[in-house]
């Protein structure tokens, strides 16, 4: 009976020591940082990096922060410079500034991104979009995106948040502006079609003039030839026509007999 009592005396202290040792160890996973809170001195100035570390149970507590890049969409509807309603969506990749994690914990808490990014994102979007017309938001999209990125980086830096990327993913306009753009495109297409019809008519007119001039010149040439040669010119034309007919019939395999009288009188085939 003495041995079990002696063993029980050692088991209790060993259990307490094991519990204290286990409570004194904490792990910081990959991609995380820990902010140490001390009940006497408050939040430590330097965060703890990845790995296994020690703390004083009850006196100290480790708060883990995910420092990996996180995506977020920020959407807003605002007015452009020419008073057109614009719906714009940003895709933001953000992470906390590791060196200022204790300050982030003290001022913003664990949900720092939820508290900061939507508000400053809407603020920057409304301010930038108001400086451009609706058409300029389309034609100068790269300029608008760079302006939004620069202003948003500056505002996020004031809260110790780093932005790895800022890009416009969606940009849509109000119904009135969309209808106006469609009407303008239709009007431009109609204007181009009318321009093509006018150019085609002009080309046809010029072709008719050239054709008429050619026919008039040919008629004048024939008239001069007839004045000079008289009936001999007509006879020559008949012979040329007959020769052409004979050559055409001779080349046709279905023709087996060519008359030697009438119009085709004594006309050589070659």
TrEMBL record:
All copies of the Band domain together span 24-185
Q: Where in the cell is it found?
A: Mitochondrion inner membrane
Where does the secretion signal sit in this chain?
Answer: 1-23
The record, for InterPro entries, names: Band_7 (IPR001107), Band_7/SPFH_dom_sf (IPR036013), Prohibitin (IPR000163)
**What coarse category fits the chief subcellular location reported for this protein?**
mitochondrion
* Record's keyword terms, sorted: Membrane, Mitochondrion, Mitochondrion inner membrane, Signal
Q: One GO cellular component term, please give it.
A: mitochondrial inner membrane
Q: Plastid: present as a keyword of the record?
A: no
Pfam families per the UniProt record, alphabetical: Band_7 (PF01145)
Gene Ontology BP terms: mitochondrion organization; mitophagy
The keyword Cell membrane is assigned to this record: no
Q: What family is this?
A: Belongs to the prohibitin family.
PANTHER family on file? PROHIBITIN (PTHR23222), PROHIBITIN 1 (PTHR23222:SF0)
Protein name according to UniProt? Prohibitin
- Species the sequence originates in: Suillus plorans
């Amino acid at each position: 009976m003495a041995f079990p009592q002696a063993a029980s005396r050692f088991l209790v202290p060993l259990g307490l020591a094991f519990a204290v040792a286990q409570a004194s160890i904490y792990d910081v996973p990959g991609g995380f940082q820990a902010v140490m809170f001390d009940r006497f001195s408050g939040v430590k100035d330097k965060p703890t990096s990845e790995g296994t570390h020690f703390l004083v149970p009850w006196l100290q507590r480790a708060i883990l922060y995910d420092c990996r890049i996180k995506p977020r969409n920020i959407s807003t509807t605002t007015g452009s410079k020419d008073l057109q309603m614009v719906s714009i969506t940003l895709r933001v990749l953000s992470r906390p500034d590791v060196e200022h994690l204790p300050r982030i914990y003290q001022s913003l808490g664990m949900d720092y991104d939820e508290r900061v990014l939507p508000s400053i994102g809407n603020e920057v979007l409304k301010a930038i979009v108001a400086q451009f017309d609706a058409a300029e938001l389309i034609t100068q999209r790269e300029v608008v995106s760079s302006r939004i990125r620069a202003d948003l980086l500056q505002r996020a830096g004031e809260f110790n948040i780093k932005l790895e990327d800022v890009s416009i993913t969606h940009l849509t306009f109000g119904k009135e502006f969309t209808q106006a753009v469609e009407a303008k495109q239709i009007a431009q297409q109609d204007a181009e079609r009318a321009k093509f019809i006018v150019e085609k008519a002009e080309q046809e007119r010029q072709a008719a003039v050239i054709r008429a001039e050619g026919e008039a010149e040919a008629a004048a040439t024939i008239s001069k030839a007839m004045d000079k040669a008289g009936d001999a010119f007509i006879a020559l034309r008949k012979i040329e026509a007959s020769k052409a007919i004979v050559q055409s019939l001779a080349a046709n395999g279905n023709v087996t007999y060519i008359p030697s009288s009438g119009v085709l009188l004594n006309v050589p085939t070659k």
